[in-house]
Design a protein that fits this description.
The strands form 5 sheets. The protein has an 8-stranded mixed sheet with strand order 1-2-6-3-7-18-8-17, sandwiched between helices. The chain has a 4-stranded antiparallel sheet with strand order 12-14-10-15, with helices on one face. Helix 1 packs across helix 3 and helix 8 packs across helix 10. It is elongated and about 80 Å long. Helix content is 34%, strand content 28%. By secondary structure, the chain is of the alpha+beta class.
Length: 391
Amino acid sequence: MAERAVQAPAQNPELSFQEVETAAEITRRLDSYGYATQQIGGGVVGVLENGEGPTVLFRADIDALPVKENTGLPYASTKTGVDAEGNTVPFMHACGHDMHIVAGLGAANLLAENKDAWSGTYIALFQPAEETGGGAQAMVDDGLVNKIPKPDVALGQHVLTVPAAGEVGTTAGPMLSTAASLKITVFGKGSHGSMPHLGVDPVVLAASIVTRLQGIVAREIAPSDFGVVTVGSLQAGSKANIIPDRATLLVNVRAYDTDVREQILAAIERIVNAECEASASPQPAEIEQFESYPLTDNDADVNDKVTAAFVDYFGADRVKQLAPITASEDFSNVPRAFGIPYAYWGFGGFTADQQVFPNHNPGFGPAMQPALRTGTEAAVAGVLAYLGKAE
């Protein structure tokens, strides 16, 4: 039954802010479990009240990625669709959100069927568009805070390449990095390749920027801090003997501290403007920030309580200490909107006999079991740490 449940979203992925059928199916299932449901900002929220007690929110993300699946699984996605730029692309749940959906629904079902084991209010939140960093904020902007009971705590999880399948991993403090992406356009003056003195070469300008950006982390960020600057794309020109009139760079930054991120962003802007001036660029650079992600910074008390519940349920040998991960999430925008503490953990996706593929890889195919069971049980155990009745 669990296998069939996860196959459905795996075979029918939907891109960010296009999760119409996914949201409808989640709503249908939550309704059947007895939840009061509503769709907010492209996502779904189900509320189950069960007497006096705390209110706990558990979040799962539901969107897919524009990646062609190459897992070889019998339920692999074969879907194509139109992305945000209007391009027809294949897509898949290359980050495991299909497993998050099913674990979230499984937890919701178990809690609904075992109301004698807990007391309080449970909120099952299924969020769109995590992959673009806008889904959590879209739900907030659509009135999430005023449309559901205020939670006392928020919880979330993600299937990862570590720890091993069947295990969970937690950490206090920074769990996932803050991040931002920039689109930088610099301008030159077009010319014939044989007459470079009559133009301003934006390719040379962009190359100078790429080289100079590498000094930010090496020479401007304190060695005790963490930061990453990546130039993931540099596009310019179309022919070998034509000097183009512009170049575009796509830059990504990561940090475990918001102040460090802002320091990096300010340094990038300074360097870009300085290099444009040095190259006699005919107009200022255009710098656009997009896909900004907040820091996922686990509350120490919440993390301790959830970790203790995991140890009690799974046993200490299946609960690992995770190091901070340089991936990013927008989950924390939900608890931040309510002003409440939160914890976010990982559960393992791959068994020892599997080849491990990272998230976002076309081959990312976590083991159905024990990964799905572990994710479902971890969700319930985390929630019951707050709502469970004392024995």
